[in-house]
Design goal:
It is built from 25 helices and two strands. By secondary structure, it is an all-alpha fold. This is Coiled-coil SMC6 And NSE5 INteracting (CANIN) domain-containing protein.
Length: about 525
């Protein structure tokens, strides 16, 4: 009986072995081909590189001859003068140019005086003085910046801790020793020991708060200044209930004095006329400044902008936290100084800190804050007299806080009153002050002599006055709806101004003025027009 399965023959096995050998030979052949292809590719790349070099050399050869085949004469490289890019200070050039012009004018005046009579010499002095004042007015009108600090590098003093207490503890002695050097101040404030002392019940003396404030503003190390601000805020934390009966003493102890704030501004080389009165130094401070060498007390550097912002923020917090320790006139004075500072080039860079500090100062005013705000507006308009600078005061005030909005509106109405009085003397007496701000603005804007709509009004001045009108109207939609008839009257006056300017634009000043008119007209018309649609 035969089986259905057969044993595989050996020949099939031999064929399988032969098949494997052929695969190996084919694999070897493939590797050799890959190597050959790689060699061919490298040879072609070398050939291509040689061709590119030949093309580059041919281009160079063509540049060495002109269109007629003659060689071009090359300038020797040693005869060429290397150009050095030098960065010039334009402000320094302009300042030196102005000084040279003034010196030349003085020399001419001295030479002419020898040939004139005494009366003619006095008349010549008056002419030169009038020319100088006119040039200064034109410069202020052209530039909206108002310098608060002197130009150039400042010699800023270092913070100084002066103890006025007769009895000092161990902690106060430790503070006095470490505060004498920059390294000691850095170590003291970085260690946080004053915070630990405060948490354990230590009553920080009043003069230490003043010293910490000076460190925030005057120290050379910015990290030390930030640590000083952190320490100051920690020491300003409210006391617990067991010290509630001593709240008045705490207010008097923790606040930063206005004289210290002014002394820091003077250390930054603030212009004395901007501060109105120069701070009077105590006898002890005078002796201190005379005994300390100038090199160790002052450092030549620019105003530290970051520390300027921290200092402004810290003083605003002090007024807000310890408002009972400040007189109303001190708060009004601080707000006026901050408004002036915002017009300076350095102050404009810390505008956010100034805005926050103004809000804190306004919040510290008492129930009669509206009267104080009107006094602040009159004071700042007395200090800042040019219209181009006055309109930039509006950027310093936020429109979020109600008291800041009111100050912004009062500045606008005060400036409009100054413009009206300048154009029509005696007219401001006919504007009732007991009316609302919108009605006062309407009475000024629609005065019988039409000072705001005259044909010879400059486009820049027109734009500024419309911006002041916009600020005086405010952003309260409810108040605008209540003064509907007055707003319609203002809108009609704005429409007449727009027609007077005309639709054909082309001059930038004219375009900006027309855009300002259209923006204010559209805003107030939209508010009262929206109500008409709702009622209908």
């Amino acid at each position: 009986m035969s089986s259905g399965f057969k044993k595989p023959i050996k020949r099939s096995h031999r064929r399988l072995v032969q098949h494997d050998d052929s695969d190996a030979e084919q694999q070897v052949t493939t590797v050799e081909e890959l190597i050959q292809r790689k060699k061919n590719k490298l040879e072609r790349e070398k050939t291509l590189e040689l061709l590119f070099q030949e093309l580059e050399q041919e281009r160079i050869n063509q540049e060495e001859v002109d269109i007629y085949g003659y060689p071009i004469k090359q300038t020797p490289t040693e005869d060429l003068i290397s150009v050095v890019d030098v960065q010039f200070d334009d402000n320094y050039i302009m300042e030196s140019y102005t000084e040279e012009m003034e010196q030349e004018g003085l020399e001419i005046k001295d030479q002419v005086k020898d040939y004139l009579a005494p009366e003619e010499q006095e008349h010549l002095d008056n002419v030169f003085q009038a020319i100088k004042e006119t040039e200064e007015i034109h410069r202020l009108e052209k530039d909206w910046n108002r310098p608060f600090f002197k130009d150039g590098i400042k010699y800023i003093r270092e913070p100084c801790l002066i103890s006025r207490d007769l009895f000092c503890g161990q902690k106060e002695i430790h503070l006095s020793e470490l505060s004498a050097t920059t390294e000691g101040r850095s170590f003291l404030l970085a260690s946080g020991c004053m915070k630990d002392w405060h948490n354990s019940g230590w009553m920080c003396p009043h003069y230490v708060y003043q010293w910490l404030f000076e460190v925030v503003a005057l120290d050379q190390d910015k990290a030390t200044a930030r640590n000083a601000l952190s320490t100051l805020l920690m020491l300003w934390s409210h006391p617990d209930d067991r010290n509630g009966s001593e709240s008045r003493e705490i207010y008097e102890q923790r606040y930063i004095k206005l004289d210290v704030f002014k002394s820091v501004l003077i250390a930054y080389h603030a212009i004395p006329t901007e501060l109105v009165d120069v701070i009077s130094m105590d006898t002890e401070d005078q002796m201190m400044s005379e005994t300390i060498p100038v090199d160790s007390q002052h450092r030549s550097r620019h105003i530290p902008l970051s520390q300027l912002g921290l200092m402004i923020k810290a003083f605003g917090f002090s007024i807000r936290l310890w408002k009972e320790a400040y007189m109303p006139w001190e708060i009004r004075y601080t707000i006026r100084i901050l408004l002036q500072l915002s017009l300076d080039k350095a102050g404009h860079l810390v505008i956010q800190e100034i805005q926050t500090s103004i809000d804190n100062c306004l919040s510290a005013l008492k129930e009669t804050w509206k009267i104080d705000v009107k006094n602040i507006a009159n004071d700042i308009c007395d200090m800042v007299t040019t219209s181009k600078q006055q309109v930039h005061l509006l950027d310093t005030l936020k429109t979020v806080y109600d008291r800041s909005r009111y100050l912004r509106r009062v500045i606008g109405i005060t400036c409009l009153g100054r413009y009206l009085e300048r154009d029509v003397p005696g007219s401001i007496d006919n504007i009732p002050v007991d009316e609302s701000l919108i009605k006062q603005a309407a009475l000024m804007f629609s005065y019988p002599e039409k000072p705001f709509t005259r044909s010879n009004l400059d486009y820049d001045e027109c734009c500024i006055r419309i911006a002041m009108l916009d600020a005086a109207i405010g952003t309260d939609d409810d108040e605008i709806r209540r003064e509907r008839e007055t707003i319609i009257q203002i809108a009609d006056e704005l429409r007449l101004i727009g027609l007077q300017i005309g639709a054909k634009l082309g001059v930038m000043k004219k375009t900006i003025a027309n855009e300002m008119v259209q923006r204010v007209w559209s805003r107030i018309s939209f508010i009262i027009g929206r109500d008409d649609k709702i009622e209908s």
